[in-house]
Amino acid sequence: MPSPDGLPRRRKPLAKTAVDAASREADEALADALEAEIEAEAALAELTEPEIEESLRARGARLTALEVARLIVDAAEDKKAAEIVLLDVSELTSMADYFVICTGGSERQLGAIGDGIAEKLRDEGVRPIGREGGSNSHWTLLDFGAVIVHIFAQQERDYYQLERHWSKAKTVVRVQ
Questions:
Q1: pLDDT digits over 24-77, tens only?
Q2: In a domain, 40, yes or no
Q3: Within a domain: residue 155?
Q4: Does any domain span residue 10?
Q5: Considering only CA atoms, which of 106, 107, 128, 118 is closest in space to residue 78?
Q6: Strand ordering across the sheet containing 130-134
Q7: Same-domain status, 44 and 67
Q8: Do 44 and 101 fall into the same domain?
Q9: Which of these, 65, 109, 147, 160, could form a disulfide with 104 (CB 3.0-4.6 Å)?
């Protein structure tokens, strides 16, 4: 109710009673109980939450050039590539540490070998820097940085003879 002069009245603070103190203590106890419950749920979540797997990119960065080369050889074998050769060219050139050379029997198989290699390494967190050629060019090149993959049709492999050109390279793996 307004005062006779039209200005709002100031309310006097209520005297603190024992009921207010009891109510405040009950509120604080309830807050403490809720906080303890939340902390217990967080602790349980930490125990039951599975660890996050390391990212593919981190896993790929951890692989050595030789491990990448061996994955490539395995992927080429899975796609039935013929005459797979892994050469260590690290002492002969700075462009790569390893060459993988293999042969496909048809244009379709050349594409399947290249796709299979790229897919297997992508699953390990390694992506090719570049891809040149294609199945219809009879020579596909996949560049993984330290490892370069050459996938040939038989005629082109016989013509270019990369193994002969890099004859001073150490042969790490040869799969017939």
A1: 777 788 888 888 888 887 777 666 545 555 555 566 568 899 999 999 999 999
A2: yes
A3: yes
A4: no
A5: 118
A6: 130-134, 139-143, 147-153, 98-104, 82-88, 170-175
A7: no
A8: no
A9: 109
- Dihedral sign for Cα atoms in the order 59, 60, 62, 65: positive
What confidence score (pLDDT) does residue 53 get?
Answer: 59
Report the number of distinct structural domains present in the chain: 2
Residue 8 covered by a domain: no
Q: 96, 149 in Cβ contact below 8 A?
A: no
Whether pLDDT at 4 is above 90 = no
Q: DSSP code of 141?
A: E
Residue 100 and residue 38 share a domain: no
Residue 167: φ, ψ to 5°: -65, -25
Nearest to residue 79, comparing CAs of 49, 43, 103?
A: 103
Q: What is the pTM of this model?
A: 0.66
**By residue range, what is the domain housing residue 43?**
15-49
Specify the higher pLDDT residue, 18 or 149.
149
